[in-house]
Design a protein that fits this description.
By secondary structure, the chain is α+β, with helices and mostly antiparallel strands. It folds into two domains: 3-46 and 320-457, no CATH class; 106-231 and 260-276, no CATH class. The protein has helices spanning 3-13, 15-48, 63-71, 84-90, 124-128, 149-152, 201-207, 292-303, 315-358, 360-368, 373-414, 427-448; strands at 55-58, 81-82, 95-107, 110-115, 131-134, 142-145, 160-165, 175-186, 197-200, 239-240, 243-244, 254-255, 258-259, 264-265, 268-269, 281-282, 284-289, 311-314. Strands 3-4-9-6-8-7 form a six-stranded mixed barrel. A two-stranded antiparallel sheet has the order 2-16. A two-stranded antiparallel ribbon has the order 10-11. The chain starts with a helix and ends in an 11-residue tail after the last helix.
Length: 459
């Protein structure tokens, strides 16, 4: 009878014990592999999230909250800052690039982000390459959506929709009058941006009944009137900053040299809109500085500003803090996983020792019939190897499935995307370590039968 046939017979003779031992190994591998995938994926997402930005400027509050809400579209923004801060930063020689961000609205739970093309790249042509359909924003009222919104909402090219005030859910606030039209779809693989709706700054202002100078997605702010396509942007029932629209007469004012009577918004007169330069606000500004000295000086200057109420948070320290939190949590769970795996390997040892104790008479008969001692020891050793290999196989498959489930939950709640199904750093070391430690556990029962004399176990 062949060696592998005998191994199969020994394992199948006690199926419950064999299955439980295999499952115990698989459970330990599942825990360790899931932790490895999720922790590594989170760290990768955190490192790749900033898109080269090293400073986030926003309202006073928690730097972590500001960073998460701006870079990862997670958490609630801490408030708004004066738009003039952005204008001043654009002219600062210490600033390589400044990206405006206007947040606060959503559609079916997906955030609406007002920004410009510099959020995605340094020139419009580079940004166009990120689209899989349509085009980028050219005027107010247009929107580009992340690829996953095609599956998770009713939006597609040409769809129109209205934003909801609030970012925590589709029913968190009132619906705005302002209408958006989808003109483009981002290619999948943009990370947290796959579930975001992008528009220009002026659209966000218009949705909140604040009209400003022209701010195109592909141009910097210019002192010209820009037409906004809106189905029903009437303001008779709304107020802004506690000022009734009836208290402001626009007939006697001009906007950047243009009389309000000379322009209309697709059928809406300027009297339907609220003009006040002081109303223009942003939620945050992403800044890429020229060098580390410029970053430090700019950060200190902004945090000590007497002209504006704001905070400047350096991205790197916040990200390091987040990774430390992840590492601490990973360490705790890893300890639990290692204990589980140790119990599993101990169960292999006990199962093999029990098998040896119960089968010594069979082994003695085999020896009497001519089987060598090496063959008998090999059979016992291979029993353990088969259990370990099956446990590793099931554990690896289970680890990927559990990690995929966890990553799907993280993606739906935080927007962080983890590409689970690939070979992860240190995965080979993890699985290899489990295998060789398991082999060590298999050697003890083998050693225990070395030197046994067959006649000792024959009744």
């Amino acid at each position: 009878m062949g060696v592998f046939t005998l191994v199969y017979r020994n394992l199948s003779n006690k199926p419950l014990r064999s299955i439980l031992t295999i499952l115990s190994v698989a459970l330990g591998v599942i825990l360790l592999l899931t932790i490895l995938i999720i922790s590594s994926g989170l760290q990768e997402s955190i490192v790749e999230g900033p898109r080269g930005h090293d400073l986030v400027i926003g309202a006073p509050g928690s730097p972590t909250q500001l960073t998460l809400s701006t870079l990862f579209h997670y958490e609630v923004p801490s408030g708004n800052i004066d738009y003039q801060v952005f204008e001043e930063l654009k002219g600062d020689e210490r600033v390589k690039k400044a990206v405006p961000m206007a947040l606060g609205d959503s559609y079916q739970g997906h955030r609406i982000v007002g920004t410009d093309y510099t959020y995605f790249g340094d020139d419009p042509e580079e940004v166009e390459d990120l689209l899989i359909a349509g085009r980028f924003i050219e005027e107010a009222g247009e929107a580009v959506i992340g690829a996953k919104l095609i599956r998770e909402t009713d939006l597609e090219i040409g769809s129109t929709f209205k934003g909801v005030h609030g970012i925590e859910g589709a029913h968190n606030g009132h619906e705005h009058d302002f209408t958006y039209e989808v003109v483009g779809i981002l290619d999948e693989g943009q990370g947290v941006d796959d579930r975001v709706i992008f528009t220009d700054i002026e659209s966000v202002w218009a949705a909140h009944h604040v009209y400003a100078t022209h701010y195109s997605f592909f141009e910097e702010g210019q002192a010209v009137i820009h037409k906004i396509d809106s189905d029903a942007c009437t303001h008779d029932d709304h107020s802004h900053n506690d000022h009734s629209h009836d208290d402001h007469s626009h007939d006697d004012h001009s906007h950047n040299g243009h009389s309000h009577d000379d322009h209309s918004h697709n059928g809406h007169s300027h009297d339907d809109f609220h003009y006040q330069a002081g109303d223009l606000e942003l939620t945050a500004i992403l800044v890429e500085s020229t060098d580390i000295q410029a970053l430090s000086s700019l950060k200190n200057e902004l945090n000590n500003s007497s002209d504006y109420s704001l905070q400047a948070a350096a991205v790197s320290p916040v990200l390091r803090q987040l990774m430390e939190v992840i590492s601490e949590g990973t360490t705790v769970v890893n300890i639990f996983a290692i204990v589980t795996l140790a119990v599993a390997l101990s169960s292999i040892l006990l199962a093999l020792l029990s098998s040896v104790a119960e089968g010594r008479s069979d082994m003695a008969v085999m020896r009497m019939l001519g089987a060598s001692q090496i063959k008998v020891m090999l059979i016992v050793f291979l029993e353990g190897v088969v259990i370990i290999l099956l446990g590793l196989l099931l554990g690896t498959l289970g680890g990927y499935l559990v990690a995929d489930f966890v990553s799907s939950y993280l993606e739906s709640t935080t927007g962080i995307v983890i590409n689970v199904f690939r070979l992860w750093p240190q995965q080979d070391i993890l699985l290899g370590s489990v295998f060789f430690i398991g082999l060590g556990a298999c050697l003890l029962p083998v050693i225990s039968i070395y030197g046994d004399e067959p006649m000792e176990f024959i009744d």
